[in-house]
Structure formats: C-alpha cells, structure tokens
Design goal:
Elements (H helix, E strand, L loop, with lengths): L1 H5 L6 H11 L2 H7 L7 H9 L3 H14 L5 H14 L2 H14 L7 H11 L3 H10 L2 H5 L5 H7 L3 H9 L8 H10 L3 H9 L9 H9 L3 H8 L5 H8 L8 H22 L2 E2 L2 E2 L1
C-alpha cells in the first residue's frame, strides 16, 4: 500500500471522459471525447442515459462525430435516452441512426417505440410513431401491436395499423385480447383498416369463433383464410359454449359468398362469360 501510494494515479482518457459525463462536466467532455472516439459505442450509451440538458448536449456531440456504432450499443443508447424522458434526445438518436450505425438496423425505431410504450413513456412512443415512415413501422417488432391492444389503446393501435404495422402471428393474440374483453368493435376497426392476418393464421380465426364473435371472424375470413382447411385444423381444439353458434353464422356467410361467386360467374375483361 505504501508503494502504491507513492505512485501517481493514472487515469486513461476514456475513464476521464466517462467521469466527465457522469459529473456533468460539459467542457471537459468536449475536450476529451475526440481522443477516444474509437470507444464511441460505450460513450454514447453513457451520454444518452445522463439526465438533463447537459446529457443531451453530450449525446448530440457524439452523434456528430461518431461513426460505425454497433446496432446493439445504439439500441441501448436509445433506450437509455427514453428512460431520461427526453423526447428530443430520442428523436435525435433516431434521426441520426443511419449515418452513425456500423450496419443498418431497420427495426430500431420500432424497438424504441416498444421500449418507450412498455416503460411508461407513451408520449415519446406516440411521438415516434408520428415521426416514423411506413417502412419503419412495418419493421417494428411484431409484438408491438399486441402490447397496445392489451392496454385497449385504440388511437395508438389505429395509428400503427394505418402506418402498416406487421403483427405476424401476434395477430391472433391481438384478436384474442379484444374479443375476449368484448371489444369486438375495436377488433373490427383494426381489421377494416387493414390489420394483416396471414392466410394460414388459423389461430386468429379460432380465437374469434371461440370467443363467440362471428362478425370479427367474417372480417378475418375475408383476408383469405380457407374455411375448409380451418375446420380441419380446429377439429381437435377445445371449444367454448359460444363456438357452435358462431360457426353456424360463418357457415351461412361462407355459403352466401360461394353462391354470390357462382351467380355472378368469373369475369374476363370486365365482362361476364
């Protein structure tokens, strides 16, 4: 200990920069960080998560000069920024992502929206939804719409659907939640506005029928699910008391649709054959 105490304490430029971030020493940070830009990944995570205007300025300074930041570090930095509650900082990170990332991360905005919405920052999440392009919303994590539906946030759910959100197999969870809570009107609106349900997503049709919501089930069928294949798939599934009545309504609907097609006949060039 005596020998160690006689030696001068050596702190690297990186450590000094981290200390400047944590202590909120903006001028020291500006002088130090250009020397350690090779470690911009971890510095951005530190700066993005520092609360207040000083943390925002530090993060923005790094965004100007940093390049080739790994997607995982950048996403962590965005989440840290969300946790500060600073929407402007989050927007800046999203806007600068393309020029700072070492490789593209199309799901970044959606992942940040999911984190914000999950952790009590709905205003930041909603602001990002408005800011995002349809391509960015389409690349969002597929469970995003499920989370919004679970909270019965109709406005946000509609904004996501109108911007092309892709829930994938989670569409069944969305419909299960809404029909199970007797919010069939919301399910119908989302489907009417284009919430996609895959033609082989039999689970999505099943939850609507099993929850006794044939009106919603009809809209799901309209997206191209084969009713006969569905019946074979659902043959051994557990059935609720409402299942058979809902199926009867669907039998009538499918029969009517087939009769309409047969009556009108196939068309060619806009004229009936």
């Amino acid at each position: 200990m005596e020998e160690g105490g006689q030696r001068p304490l050596h702190i690297s430029d990186y450590d000094k920069t981290v200390l400047a971030i944590r202590d909120g020493e903006l001028e020291s940070f500006k002088a130090l960080y250009p020397k350690v830009l090779d470690q911009a990944d971890s510095l951005l995570v530190e700066a993005a998560g520092r609360p207040g205007a000083v943390g925002r300025k530090m993060a923005l300074s790094l965004l100007v000069d940093a390049e080739s930041i790994s997607p995982s570090s950048y996403l962590t930095a965005c989440k840290r920024a969300v946790d500060t509650g600073d929407g402007q900082r989050v927007r800046s990170l999203i806007e600068r992502a393309e020029s700072c990332l070492s490789e593209p991360l199309p799901s970044l905005p959606g992942a940040v929206i999911l984190h914000a919405y999950t952790n009590g920052h709905r205003n930041i999440a909603k602001d990002l939804i408005v800011q995002c392009t349809t391509e960015q919303i389409a690349a969002a994590p597929p469970n995003l719409l499920r989370l919004v539906a679970e909270r019965l946030d109709f406005q946000t759910a509609m904004e996501l659907v109108d911007k092309g959100v892709q829930p994938g197999n989670y569409a069944a969870d969305v419909l299960h939640t809404l029909t199970g809570q007797h919010q069939e009107w919301m399910a119908e609106q989302l489907l009417a506005h284009g919430m996609p349900v895959g033609p082989d997503n039999y689970a999505a049709l099943y939850v609507c029928i099993n929850n006794g919501m044939p009106g919603v089930a009809k809209l799901v069928l309209d997206q191209g699910i084969d009713f006969d294949k569905y019946r074979a798939w659902a043959d051994n599934k557990p059935k609720s008391a409402e299942y058979e009545a809902a199926m009867e309504a669907l039998y009538g609907y499918v029969t009517e649709q087939k009769n309409t097609v047969q009556r009108d006949g196939p068309t060619m060039g806009g004229m009936c054959r």
